[in-house]
Design a protein that fits this description.
CBS-domain
């Protein structure tokens, strides 16, 4: 959408595509964002203009908060918290490559927490093994059980794998 398109057009586009926001573009560059809340608070509740003819530029948020595709999910969550927003525009150079929302983060964080918990459990298990003088368990090279594991190169290795 361009800044001159109507608020009504934005609302219809959001409804048709079941989306909660639209990035406003001018000359191929993002210049603003309009959310459902903007439509309600700045257009529908406004007594000064008719939303059917009001340009979207009147209600869009101009100070865009963006993130790079190379930034982490933690970076995205921190930016959202810092700026009190629920949507970040993902930009590569001056090109929009996506939008990440707080809902997106909430959908993946349980999985991330599960992975971190598993990694922590593995690290704790390794640390317990390292504190013992005699290691028993699965060789991290060949996968065979051994009562005679030693640490080599950060891995617990059986006698057969130590020799190769």
């Amino acid at each position: 959408m361009s800044p001159n398109d109507s608020v009504e057009k934005a609302a219809r586009l959001m409804k048709e595509n079941n989306i909660g926001s639209i990035v406003i573009v001018s000359d191929g560059r993002p210049v603003g964002i309009v959310t459902e809340r903007d439509l309600v608070c700045r257009a529908l509740a406004s007594e000064s203009s008719d939303p059917r003819v009001m340009p979207i530029s009147k209600i869009m948020t101009r100070d865009l908060v963006t993130i790079s595709p190379d930034d982490s999910l933690t970076d995205a969550a921190e930016k959202m918290r810092q700026y009190g927003i629920r949507r970040l525009i993902v930009v590569s150079g001056e090109k929009i490559v996506g939008i990440i929302t707080s809902k997106d983060l909430l959908q993946v964080y349980p999985d991330i927490i599960g992975i971190l918990y598993e990694e922590l459990s593995i690290m704790r298990g390794r640390e317990r093994l390292r504190r013992r003088r005699r290691y028993s368990g699965i060789c991290e090279v060949c996968g065979q059980y051994s009562d005679n594991l030693i640490e080599a190169g950060g891995l617990l290795v059986c006698p057969s794998c130590r020799e190769t």
